[in-house]
Each structure stands twice: as structure tokens, then as C-alpha cells.
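Lab notebook, bench 4. The sequencing result for the construct came back, and we need a structural model before the next group meeting so we can plan mutations. Quick request posted to the team channel:

Model the 3D structure of this chain.
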Amino acid sequence: MRILGIDPGYAIVGWGVLDYRGNKFSVVDYGSIETPAGMNFNNRLLKIYDDLDLIIKRTKPDFLSIEKIFYNSNAKTAINVSQARGVLLLCSIQNNLEIFEYTPLQVKQAVVGYGRAEKKQIQEMTKIILNLKKIPKPDDTADALAMAVCHAHSYGSLIFEEKIK
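Done. Here's the predicted structure in C-alpha cell form:
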């Protein structure tokens, strides 16, 4: 299976595409979609959509693994991230991807085996699992790869997955 992992945001969207066959991973590609701070917010959303559409068409994933939105104490940030997440989901739906969302706890459990793992532990374990020389930067890209690993380790388990219908 080919999995696109996404760490949603509006300034930086981390993404990573992995193949997972026979309990083995191979990295297809990864990176980030970045929008400048001074850019009109609607244009930021359009850039996110357009860039993701190109990534999907180029890498042809079967599944999208995306972080489930969580409460943020800054309401404006949470609303903006939610809007960007909506654009990411729309693009994925229009490209016929099966979409699964996971909480940060589920990602930690699936990648590290411990639900209270620190961010650096998750990134280090992702690097080891994927046999990378270094942790990808920015952090959002490493987080997106962890999302994809989470889906591979969790796919088919009713305990972990929540499919968006």
C-alpha cells in the first residue's frame, strides 16, 4: 500500500509518502508545503490545495493518514489550521484517496509503543523505522512521515483507525 501522511497547518504542511509491503517500508518522497506569513490567507489555502494536488498526482498514494484535529488554546490558530485541514481533505477526496485520521496519542503508540512519548522520540523512531540518515526537516515533515508509519502499523485495527466516510 502507498500512504500519504500529512501534518496539517497553514504556514507549513508536512507530507510524506511511503510504500508498505510485507512489513517493510520504502520512502517514496517527503517534504513540506510552505506559505509565506504575509500572503493573503485565501491564497495560502489555494497554494496548499494546488501543491497537494500535484504531490498526489505525482506519487499516486492509496491512503491519506492525517492528524485528527485537537483543541488548541489559541482559537484563531485552531480555526486557521482547521480551514487548511479542510482544504487538504477536499483535495484528497477529489483524488479518490481513502482517508484515515489518527490522534497524537495513536501516532505515539503506533510508532514508539508508548502513548506519552516525546516529539523527539517519535522523530528518532521514525528515522530508524524508515532507515533514514537523519530526521527530516522541518519537524512537520518528520511528523507527516510518522503519520504514514502510524497508518501502516494500524491499518485494519478497529482500535486505532477512524475512517472518514
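The chain has a mean pLDDT of 92.
Will bring this to the meeting.
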